Amino acid sequence: MIGLLVVQTVATLVLVGLAWFVQVVHYPLFARVPGDAFAAYEREHARRTTWVVAPLMGVEAVCAAGLLVAEPSALTALGALLVAVVWTSTFLLQVPCHRVLERGWNEAAHRRLVRTSWLRTGAWSARGAIALVLLV
Question: Is the full-model pTM beyond 0.90?
Answer without folding.
Answer: yes
